C-alpha cells in the first residue's frame, strides 16, 4: 500500500493532497498513525505503532479538492468516531448502568401506595397490575381486591397509579362536593389523544376547555329535550320485543349482549342523527351494520391493541409512541376515521339547511353556543330531571364573544356519544339482566311496579318512568355492583390525611 503526500502553500491557508491511493487518503477523516502529528505525511509507520486521533486542516469535497474545515466540525468528527468505537466492556458497563438506573426508577415509581400507606396488590415492574386486569377482567379483579384489601385500594393501570374506591362517604365527595377535581374520565387511549379529531371530544379535553364544552353540551340533555326525543325510541323498543319473542320461540340459548348492542345502536342513531337504521331486524342489509363493525373494531383495538398496552406501561417513551402513531395514521385508515366519513356529510347538510330543524342530538350540538369566558358553576354542568340547563349569572353580560362547536368538535362528540352510548348502555342492560335473573325476588318486585304503571297509563312516557320508585334505586345498585366506567382526579385533596400523587 502507498501513502499520500501533502504540501502546504506559503500562506498556510490551503493544503493540497496528491492521492496515490484513495484508501490511504481516507485516514484523514478518522485516525492517523502516530508519526503524522503534522499534515505533512512522510514515510510509512512501524508495524506496532498505535493510531492516535489527529486534527487535520483539510477535508474532501466533491471534485476531489480539499477545503478548509472548522475546529468545531473536526472536534465533532473526532468525538463521534471515539464514541462509536468504544471497546465492548465500556459499552457493556454503560448499558448496565442505564438498565440499573431504569430499574430503580421503576421501583420507586411503583412504591407510591406503599409509601403513603394505601393497601393494594403488588405491581410488576413491567405492567403494574394491568396484566391481571386484562386476564381476569375488571369486575372480577376489583371484587377480589376490595374483599382482600378494603374499601380503598391502590393499583397501577400500567405505570399510572389509580384508586379503587368503595367507601360511600368518599364516593360522595368525588361525585358531588369535589366533582370539579374529578371531571376527567381517565381513558388512556393513545390513539384517541393523538388523533386530530378524536382529541377534541369531551373525554380527551380537560380543564377550561372541558368546562366550556360541557357547558355547550349540557342543554342537549334537559328534560324538555329528552321528552321531545322520547317518541323516537318507541319503534326501537317494539322491534326489540319482537326479536325477543322470536328468540324465545326457538327455545335455544342466545347471547343477550348482542341483542342489547343492536338495540342500543338503533336508539342512539335515531336520537343522535334522526336516521332510521333498521339494524335490529335486517342485519347485514343497511349501512348501519358497517358502523356496528367499525365500532366493534375500534373497541377491540382499544382493549387488546399492543400500542395501548405499551403506552400504559411505559408512558416515559411517549415520543416513540407518537412517532409510531403518526406513521400509522399516514399509511392506515383507522376505524374511527370511517365513522367520521359517515357523519361529516350529515353535518354539511344540516349546516347548509339551517331552516330544517330536527329534534335530535346532532341538531342540538349544531345550535349550541355559550359566551366565551363566562363563569360556570360546577353544579351547572349537570342538569336535573325536572329543570332546564341553568344559566350563569354572567351569561347575560353583553359584548362577549359567542363560543360554538366547530365541525371537528361536533364530529368528535357525535362519534363519542355513538361509541360510548353503544358500549355502556348495552353493557349496563346486560349487567341488569344478569342480576335480575340471579335475584328473582328483585325481579318480581320490579316487574310488578312496571306492570302497574303500564296498566294505569296505557303506555310509558318520560314522567311515569321517572316516577317508578323501585326502578331508579335498582339501576343505581347495578352500577355499584358492576360499574361500566371510572373517573380520574386532577388535583391533590386533603381530608385529614394528605395524599401525595406521583
From TrEMBL:
Coiled coil region boundaries: none
Residues annotated as transmembrane: 81-105
Keywords: Endoplasmic reticulum, Heme, Iron, Membrane, Metal-binding, Microsome, Monooxygenase, Oxidoreductase, Transmembrane, Transmembrane helix
Cofactors named for this entry: heme
Molecular function via GO: heme binding; iron ion binding; monooxygenase activity; oxidoreductase activity, acting on paired donors, with incorporation or reduction of molecular oxygen
Pfam families referenced in this protein's UniProt entry, alphabetically: p450
Record's GO cellular component terms: endoplasmic reticulum membrane
Top-rank taxon, per record: Eukaryota
PANTHER family the UniProt entry points to: CYTOCHROME P450, CYTOCHROME P450 FAMILY-RELATED
Similarity remark: Belongs to the cytochrome P450 family.
Protein name in UniProt: Putative cytochrome p450 cyp3/cyp5/cyp6/cyp9 subfamily
Organism for this UniProt entry: Ixodes ricinus (Common tick)
Amino acid at each position: 500500500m502507498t501513502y499520500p503526500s501533502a504540501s502546504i502553500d506559503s500562506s498556510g491557508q490551503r493544503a493540497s493532497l496528491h492521492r496515490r491511493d484513495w484508501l490511504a487518503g481516507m485516514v484523514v477523516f478518522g485516525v492517523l498513525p502516530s508519526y503524522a502529528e503534522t499534515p505533512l505525511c512522510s514515510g510509512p509507520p512501524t508495524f506496532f505503532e498505535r493510531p492516535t486521533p489527529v486534527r487535520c486542516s483539510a477535508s474532501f469535497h466533491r471534485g476531489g479538492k480539499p477545503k478548509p474545515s472548522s475546529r468545531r466540525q473536526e472536534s465533532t468528527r473526532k468525538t463521534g468516531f471515539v464514541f462509536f468505537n468504544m471497546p465492548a466492556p465500556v459499552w457493556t458497563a454503560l448499558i448496565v448502568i442505564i438498565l440499573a438506573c431504569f430499574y430503580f426508577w421503576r421501583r420507586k415509581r411503583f412504591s407510591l401506595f406503599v409509601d403513603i400507606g394505601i393497601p393494594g396488590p403488588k405491581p410488576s415492574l413491567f405492567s403494574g397490575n394491568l396484566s391481571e386486569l386484562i386476564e381476569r377482567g375488571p369486575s372480577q379483579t376489583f371484587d377480589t381486591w376490595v374483599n382482600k384489601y378494603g374499601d380503598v385500594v391502590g393499583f397501577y393501570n400500567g405505570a399510572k397509579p389509580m384508586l379503587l374506591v368503595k367507601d360511600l362517604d368518599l364516593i360522595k365527595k368525588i361525585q358531588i362536593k369535589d366533582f370539579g377535581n374529578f371531571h376527567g374520565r381517565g381513558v388512556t387511549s393513545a390513539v384517541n389523544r393523538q388523533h386530530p379529531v378524536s382529541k377534541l371530544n369531551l373525554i380527551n379535553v380537560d380543564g377550561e376547555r372541558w368546562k366550556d364544552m360541557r357547558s355547550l353540551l349540557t342543554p342537549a340533555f334537559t328534560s324538555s329535550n329528552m321528552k321531545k326525543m322520547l317518541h323516537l325510541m318507541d319503534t326501537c323498543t317494539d322491534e326489540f320485543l319482537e326479536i325477543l319473542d322470536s328468540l324465545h320461540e326457538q327455545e335455544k340459548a342466545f347471547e343477550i349482549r348482542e341483542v342489547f348492542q343492536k338495540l342500543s345502536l338503533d336508539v342512539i342513531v335515531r336520537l343522535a342523527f334522526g336516521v332510521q337504521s333498521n339494524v335490529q331486524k335486517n342485519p347485514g342489509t343497511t349501512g348501519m351494520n358497517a358502523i356496528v363493525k367499525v365500532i366493534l373494531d375500534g373497541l377491540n383495538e382499544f382493549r387488546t391493541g399492543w400500542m395501548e398496552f405499551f403506552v400504559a406501561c411505559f408512558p416515559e417513551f411517549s415520543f416513540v409512541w407518537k412517532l409510531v402513531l403518526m406513521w400509522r395514521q399516514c399509511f392506515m385508515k383507522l376505524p374511527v376515521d370511517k365513522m367520521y366519513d359517515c357523519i361529516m356529510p350529515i353535518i354539511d347538510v344540516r349546516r347548509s339547511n339551517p331552516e330544517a330543524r330536527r329534534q335530535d342530538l346532532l341538531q342540538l350540538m349544531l345550535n349550541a353556543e355559550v359566551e366565551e369566558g363566562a363563569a360556570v358553576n360546577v353544579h351547572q354542568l349537570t342538569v336535573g330531571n325536572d329543570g332546564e340547563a341553568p344559566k350563569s349569572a354572567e351569561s347575560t353580560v353583553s359584548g362577549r364573544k359567542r363560543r360554538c362547536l366547530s365541525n371537528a368538535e361536533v364530529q368528535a362528540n357525535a362519534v363519542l356519544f355513538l361509541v360510548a352510548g353503544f358500549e355502556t348502555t348495552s353493557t349496563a342492560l346486560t349487567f341488569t339482566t344478569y342480576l335480575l335473573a340471579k335475584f328473582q325476588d328483585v325481579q318480581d318486585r320490579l316487574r310488578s311496579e312496571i306492570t302497574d304503571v303500564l296498566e294505569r297509563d296505557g303506555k310509558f312516557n318520560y314522567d311515569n318512568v321517572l316516577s317508578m320508585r323501585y326502578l331508579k334505586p335498582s339501576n343505581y345498585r347495578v352500577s355499584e355492583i358492576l360499574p361500566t366506567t371510572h373517573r380520574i382526579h386532577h388535583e391533590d385533596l386533603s381530608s385529614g390525611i394528605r395524599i401525595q400523587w406521583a
